[in-house]
Design goal:
Blueprint: E1 2-7, H1 14-23, E2 28-30, H2 31-41, H3 43-53, E3 58-59, E4 62-63, H4 65-72, H5 76-99, E5 105-109, H6 113-116, E6 124-129, H7 132-142, H8 147-155, H9 160-164, E7 169-172, H10 179-190
Parallel strand pairs: 1-5, 1-6, 2-5, 6-7
Antiparallel strand pairs: 3-4
């Protein structure tokens, strides 16, 4: 079984690409979605976030994403501690999920595979990228946050130029380039 990472900066469209791959019949683990589920349910993560950020990081039993984002995007040391708390648990959850799959090719959609070094755990990594202005517009349309907040998040991720040096498997998701052809070409090379 080959494990393939799908990554890209905020607003690149990596989840959209992952959905296409899933509709092609391949199992896809969505790290961001699963991370949110684990953050709300995993006792070690919950207590760790309360210890790091404070009781107000949970509201009504659910993670208050705005409180967490505000805390970590302005504090590099805190963001590192939160990542060290959450990411190992999500990685273990992915491994458990992967071991239950029957496909010869499985995918893991995750935002910061290059930033965390987790891309080394995969047989290959697909980078989804798009022009920065388009990414900004996508996030502003999708999320209820300010332009400054989006730019701060973008600045906390590696630039696409750096990521593109780290993998030959790249999908340009600019709203004009045909996606299915790019995906099929990469899958042919990976299999």
């Amino acid at each position: 079984m080959k494990k393939i990472g799908i990554t890209g900066g905020i607003g690149s469209g990596k989840s959209f690409i992952a959905t296409i791959i899933e509709r092609m019949g391949y199992p896809v683990y969505y790290s961001d979605v699963r991370s949110k589920e684990l953050t709300n349910s995993h006792p070690i993560i919950r207590q760790g976030l309360i210890d790091l950020v404070g009781e107000n990081v949970f509201f009504g039993g659910e993670l208050d994403k705005k409180v967490l984002a505000t805390a970590i995007f302005s504090n590099d040391a805190l963001r590192l501690k939160v990542n060290q708390l959450i990411h190992p648990n999500v990685r273990q959850d992915f491994e458990d999920w992967a071991n239950a799959q029957k496909s010869n090719l499985i995918f893991n959609e995750a935002a910061i595979l290059f930033e965390t070094g987790a891309y080394r755990n995969f047989d290959a990594t697909i980078l989804v990228y798009a022009p920065e202005e388009l990414r900004l517009q996508r996030v502003l349309k999708r999320d209820i946050i300010t332009k400054e907040e989006v730019l701060a998040r973008m600045n906390n991720q590696l630039k696409d130029e750096e990521k593109r040096k780290m993998t030959p498997f790249q999908i340009l998701n600019d709203g004009e380039s045909p996606l299915l052809i790019q995906i099929e070409n990469i899958l042919e090379q990976i299999v």
